[in-house]
Amino acid sequence: MDPEPPFHETYKPLFANTKIEHRSLVTVEEGELPLVDLSRLRQKEAEKEKCKEEIGRAAHEWGFLQVMNHGISMELLEQLREEQVRLFKQPFQNKSLSFSAGSYRWGTPTATSLGQLSWSEAFHIPMTDISSSSMEAFATKVSSLAKQLAEILAEKLGQNWSYFQSSCLPSTCYLRLNRYPPCSIPYDVYGLMPHTDSDFLTILHQDEVGGLQLVKDGKWISVKPNPQALIINIGDLFQAWSNDFYTSVEHCVVTHPTQERFSVAYFLCPSNETVIESCSKPSVYTKFSFREYREKVQEDVQRYGYKVGLPRFLV
């Protein structure tokens, strides 16, 4: 049975009725993210502090960085990828049965134009719903890394990281296994449409195919893939909490005409009741709960086809 989601059939009206759309930011350059060697955190105090400074500077200037010597072995990453491929290669009709209801997603149900369509499928898995040994081992390690990085970023602002420790629990964080099928349609179709992440931190491992792009200094940068590194990016909640010191940057995934692409992401999220309030004054944003933020995002996506995000909560 066919494992592919029915993209062509479902979105045929968009291909027939939508004119070719072009991004508002058209310049795309290939670049490498700031690369930080986390083994330096285990060295003498001076080197440890330099490493922390680099992490904080990248989060401030780029909103993105990549890390090596992160404590997750290539063997484990390869085992996870094999598990991921098996899940996506099963018949399409079976995928929704793999995890809890609503975990499997594909395409963009609310899309009214090609620019709002994401040519991808994903398993969006709560940490408490993970069963396979490779996924569980990865989740345990990446969760620890996320909290270590949150602690460093809070420390750079002179703040205590206990806020993240108490609000971000296994029951509130999740993994997302992504697959981007080949897309030979001659339009500007995204694998994942431009967006910012609605969390504190995202940790991503991607394969060698590439496709991740982000905005830097008014230009789209195509991130050169490094399968041995993990990519870290700041989410909206960390930007709000840091009072705009750290930056949640718009990013997207572009499609490839002949190759499929796989990635896995971990999202450091709080409970719905957690209140997000700027750690310094005067505050750029009004304080809001994560539930309020998610509800506003859902409303905007339904109404406009895209997320507005933090500007909704400006003072």
Fold blueprint:
Layout: H1 7-10, H2 12-17, E1 28-31, E2 35-37, H3 45-61, E3 64-68, H4 74-89, H5 92-95, E4 104-106, E5 121-126, H6 133-156, H7 162-167, E6 174-180, E7 190-195, E8 201-206, E9 212-216, E10 219-223, E11 230-234, H8 236-241, E12 251-254, E13 261-268, E14 275-276, E15 288-289, H9 290-304
Parallel strand pairs: 1-10, 2-3
Antiparallel strand pairs: 3-11, 4-5, 5-6, 6-13, 7-12, 8-11, 8-13, 9-10, 9-12, 14-15
Helix pairs in contact: 3-6, 4-6
Family: Belongs to the iron/ascorbate-dependent oxidoreductase family.
Keywords: Iron, Metal-binding, Oxidoreductase
Domain Fe2OG dioxygenase: 171-270
Structure report:
This protein is an alpha+beta fold and 315 residues long. It has one domain: B-lactam Antibiotic, Isopenicillin N Synthase, Chain (Jelly Rolls), CATH 2.60.120.330. Helices cover 31% and strands 23% of the residues. The strands form three sheets. It has an eight-stranded mixed β-sheet. The longest helix is centred in the middle third of the chain and has 24 residues, at 133-156. It is globular. The N and C termini lie far apart (53 Å). The model has no long low-confidence stretch (mean pLDDT 93).
